[in-house]
Amino acid sequence: MFNVVLVGCGAMSKHWLDAVKQIDGLAIVGLVDLDAERAKARAREYELTGAVIGTSLDAVLDQTRPDAVFDIVVPAARRDVALSAFAHNCHLLTEKPLADSPENARAIVEAARRAGRVHAVVQNRRYVANVRRIRRFLDSGAIGAATSIHADFFVAPHFGGFREEMAHVLLLDMAIHTFDAARYMVGGEPASVYCQEWEPASSWYRQGSSASAVFDLGGGKVFTYAGSWCAAGFRTSWEGSWRIVAEHGSLAWDGHDALTAELVLPVRDGLFDKTEPVEVPPLDPADRVDGHLGIIRDFMHAIETGTQPETRGDDNIKSVAMVFGAIESAETGRRVAISKEAQ
């Protein structure tokens, strides 16, 4: 049996616990939250009758001695949770973002390395079926190498609570999903960013609900991001909408089910090269999907086999570096280099 202590019993914990119910051989042996009543309520809701309930992670880890910790706390508490988990010889799977600052991200990754523990992040947009399909299609060379990657994200949720008071709320809370998906789909390595944030007059957020950024992803690849948490009307998918321009054609994805590609032909009609549709193949049997469920299964598989999961911390920190590079650029008004040291 693979024993886990879950820390942070807020709304997001339901996604994790719904996935856990579908995994044989995984047991939640402890629930930790600053509000003990909230932890008890989660235990009742998911019938975790034997789980130890507590407000101190160290105390619950001492009592239960689990194999791993599932971290669903607010980002500001993530470093303390990570260090506690590694000190108790636990593996760690954490909600995104990996950390609330570049310094804390590097400290967590280094602590995992020293402890020799598996550390991964729930970067679940990689586990979306069409993200997998796009990566395989681009890797096939069917339209050549990607050169320009464009993503739009326009969603206007009224969350209430801490998000509406956060600084850099779009970049820090949501944009990492899009940044990581872009990096994954085209095999990019972030080198620099220029970003601007603003607060529209209609916004109900304190700061940073709208942003536009341009990233150099190396190898001649440029990624543009335009997003807003308060753009009413014409809502995009939570995955955003995408256009990827390549050497010999383009791919478009609406973030839902519409995924199309066109190949340039060696024939011109007036000013324009002719194009023809090209099929984006379906999922490969080896493609791992299913969001939280897929990531948790990969995490367990990595521990069992002594390998590293796809969303391991020392890779995910590159997507975190994109976020904090964009924040620094927005604050300073200048282009920011994303150094290897930041990753």
What's the structural blueprint in terms of helices and strands?
Blueprint: E1 2-7, H1 13-20, E2 26-32, H2 36-45, E3 52-54, H3 57-64, E4 68-71, H4 78-87, E5 91-95, H5 102-115, E6 119-122, H6 129-140, E7 146-154, H7 169-186, E8 192-198, E9 210-216, E10 222-228, E11 241-246, E12 249-253, E13 259-269, E14 272-277, H8 291-305, H9 313-332, E15 336-337
Helix pairs in contact: 4-5, 5-9, 6-7, 7-9
Model description:
The chain is α/β, with parallel strands linked by helices and 343 residues long. The protein folds into two domains: 2-117, NAD(P)-binding Rossmann-like Domain (Rossmann fold), CATH 3.40.50; 128-285 and 320-342, 2-Layer Sandwich (Dihydrodipicolinate Reductase, domain 2). Helix content is 34%, strand content 26%. It has nine helices and 15 strands. The strands form two sheets. The chain has a nine-stranded mixed β-sheet with strand order 14-13-12-11-7-10-9-8-15. A six-stranded parallel β-sheet has the order 3-2-1-4-5-6, sandwiched between helices. α4 runs parallel beside α5, α5 runs antiparallel to α9 and α6 crosses α7 (169-186). It is globular, with a radius of gyration of 21 Å. The model has no long low-confidence stretch (mean pLDDT 95).
